[in-house]
Amino acid sequence: MSADLAGAVFKYLCHQEADRAWVVGGEALALCARCTGVYAGAALAALALPFGRFEPSRRILWLFGAAMIQMGVLGFNPFFEPAWLRMLSGSMFSAGAVYFLWLPVRAALRPKGGGRARNSLLAAAAAVLVLQVIVHINLRGMADVIETVALAGVGIFAGLAVTDIILIACGCAGKPQRP
């Protein structure tokens, strides 16, 4: 079921070149390594959001921004990249994207924050590393798990984007704090 749904959804979001897809548990994923990083990485990065009670510092904003900018170069495949590096590039991008999409939501929920920005960075790094481990678990059915997580990532991106649009349109997002 999830393989059919993943194939149907990702045919619009991924080039689905078989030689660029992970083979997990004997099954090729319905998306390439970079898109696995982007979408499954988004779902895993979203798990880190509750750990980020913080006011973002300039350094954290630059780090998450750089994580997104690298996709502008590596996303065009300027040189041969092994699958793990393509997936790392995608998951770094999604960690940054989820972080920035979360900021207006977080500001609306907790206008006065506290805590440490480092928590979000550490949690996002853990999500990136967990994804690298998950694709190497060569168990039957693991491809379905990864595709389901990637589908959840698509929903998280869409949900955060729509929520941001609503919050900004109604003026509920709060004013961002200057780092």
Describe the structure.
The protein has 179 residues and is mainly alpha-helical. It has one domain (2-170). It has six helices and two strands; from the N terminus they run αββααααα. It has helices at 2-10, 33-47, 58-74, 83-109, 118-134, 142-170, and strands spanning 21-24, 27-32. The chain has a two-stranded antiparallel ribbon. α1 packs across α6 (142-170), α2 packs parallel to α4 (83-109) and α2 packs across α5. The longest helix has 29 residues, at 142-170. The protein starts with a helix and ends in a 9-residue tail after the last helix.
Q: What's the number of helices? A: 6
The total strand number stands at 2
- What is the overall pLDDT average? 81
End-to-end gap: 46 Å
The Cα radius of gyration reads: 17 Å
Q: Return residue spans where pLDDT drops below 50 for at least 5 consecutive residues.
A: none
Overall number of structural domains: 1
Side by side, the strands of the main sheet go: 1-2
Tell the overall outline. globular
Task: Give the biggest beta sheet.
Answer: 2 strands, antiparallel
Percent of residues in beta strands: 5-15%
Range of helix content: 55-70%
SSE order, one letter for each helix or strand: HEEHHHHH
Summing up helix and strand content along with how strands pair, one would put the structural category as mainly alpha
